[in-house]
Amino acid sequence: MDKNVRIVLDSNGVIQRHAVCTARRFFLGLLLRGKMTPAVYLRLMRRVRGNIAGKMNAEETKYITEFYVQNRHIQIPLIRGARRTVNRLIADHPGRVYICSANAFSAESDAIYRNWFMKTFPGLAGVHFVPAFSTKGDFYRQIHEKYPHDRVIVVDDAKRHIDEATALGLDTRWIDKHNGYKNLHDAFYGRVRE
Question: Residue 136, Cα to own-chain centre: how many angstroms?
Fold first, then answer.
């Protein structure tokens, strides 16, 4: 076991399934009840599906707010085998496994989500949220600067977050079936990649 390793895990697409299905059902319900226009629905689905960065307009913010207020982001199911793998990482690297998720919304929503993570994965070193569709680079930099002698490994399924970590000189594990690792287990305990 390498004692000088810190692991930063993304949640959506690495631990939990992608938000697309949960968001699609939630937003489709609003559309079918006449509470959202088809144009806004399509715009939101493009943003969620593509994890598109950038400032949200007022309509997008309104519906994303509803999604978070109802804690739908917490109800996204875990990926098969993810619980076992995260717990194994925590056992192999006690006090050195973090979650950094682009799911910050409000103090109340963040607290509920953080508690859910800590209860689901006892032993996590911490859970950090950044606003949806924004950068995680500041958190990566904080971990790297706080522990300059540790090797920081960032695991994410979004290429832009992997690029942010790479630009900081951190190790990365990209969860992408075609270009990276197929899942979290594969990234640490599966095939060896160069």
Answer: 10
* pLDDT, tens digit only, all 194 positions of the chain: 567 899 999 998 899 988 777 888 888 899 999 999 998 888 888 877 766 656 677 888 788 778 777 777 777 889 999 999 999 999 999 999 999 998 777 788 888 889 999 999 999 999 999 877 678 999 999 999 999 999 999 999 989 999 999 999 999 999 998 888 999 999 999 865 54
Token digits for 24?
């699609």
> Counting Cβ atoms within 10 Å, is residue 27 exposed (0-12), middle (13-18) or buried (19+)?
buried
Instruction: Name beta bridge partners: 7.
Output: 97, 153
Q: What token pair was written down for 117?
A: 């993570």
Query: What is the helix (H) or strand (E) element at residue 151, kind and residue range?
Result: strand 151-156
Q: Which two tokens stand for residue 123?
A: 């032993």
Angle between helices 58-69 and 19-32 (to 10 degrees): 110
HSE-up of residue 102 (Cα within 13 Å, Cβ side): 24
Length of the chain: 194
Q: Which residues pair with 151 in a beta bridge?
A: 5
Residue position matching structure tokens 């493009």: 46
**Do residues 7 and 155 touch, judged by C-beta distance below 8 A?**
yes
Give the max Cα distance, the chain. Answer: 55
What does pTM read for this prediction?
A: 0.81
